[in-house]
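Listing S7. Sequence submitted for prediction.
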Amino acid sequence: MFEKLTASPLAQLLRRNSWGDYDLLLTRLDRWQYSSIFYDALENLNREALFTSAVHGEGHIERVMILGALLAMLEGEGREDTVLLMDMCSYHDTGRVSDWLDEFHGSRSCFKLEELTGRDGEELKMTMAGVEAHSRKDGDMDSVIAKYMPDDFERAKRLALLLKDADGLDRVRIGDLDPRFMRTEAAKTLTEFSEYLFKAYSDMQVELGQEPVRRDLVDRKIMEQMRDHVQECYFGKDWNCAVTMITALAQFFETDLSPQLINAAKGMHGAGKFGAQCGLVEGALMFIGVYYSNRGENQYEVERICNAFAHAFTEKYKSLTCRDLRPGGFNDDDPPHLCAGLTLDAILFTREFILGINKEKV
């Protein structure tokens, strides 16, 4: 089984077939009449289409797939719905642009489903509805599904709930799984297994020479602090991304900023929405100049660090340009502050970059 998936931790775990206290559960999955649907989906997963991330990338997708298969089995889903659920589990995060605040990544993901799955008609409607709904609040689910006008609303909603629970069960990777928020009875029985799965998967990643997601990789207090900062800057003060970035870094590194510097950053969001260099980059570069000058570095060292940051930012986000980085580009009907999710991710990335430079200088 899975002879070609030598780099897939889940495929290797399934081949090894040693699940400790959960042997009975996985034996039941293996003998399930629709198990081949799950195995085929894992075998044929288009990995190049997945979001590149330790948090929402291949590892997350593989775990959501097996959790989705278990939910389908325990909830007694039929062949057709199991097939659709596997498609949804496989590609629900393909529209992500960051690991954090990204409420609309489901809507971006759903528009890739036709090409990735080959579905059309009613099947495509239901998968799109579920994938969009998974990243929205539970209270929005009915209106999201209704927008796609499926013939069988309740069937579409059941699939959406199963995807939400499969996705939610893998929140163990960030230490944030609360069984009280599971929507299906089957999901409530799998919360302990999801912990076991995450640990077994991480151990297999190490065995295969891959880097697992560590729960201490992101300091949750810092993440929450910056989430509040971004929300306040964008939706409370209506600041742009450059001002939001530079003031966030000033908080991290306890650096005083002059009013003139804040004023200078007010037009640096792609050159006043022209779509030029991203304000997140501009704000970070401005802060690096202030911060390292205050630390006694000469202009040539500041230039070197800025150059290294530009290289690192490009490697992670693939561009320095606003029109490339902004989700969906620029449209007349865009909601305000569409880059909130990317902003939080970029702030945390820049913080780690500066900490890394500081460690080099010790």
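Caption to Listing S7: primary sequence and predicted structure tokens for the chain studied. The mean pLDDT is 89. The two ends are 50 Å apart (CA to CA).
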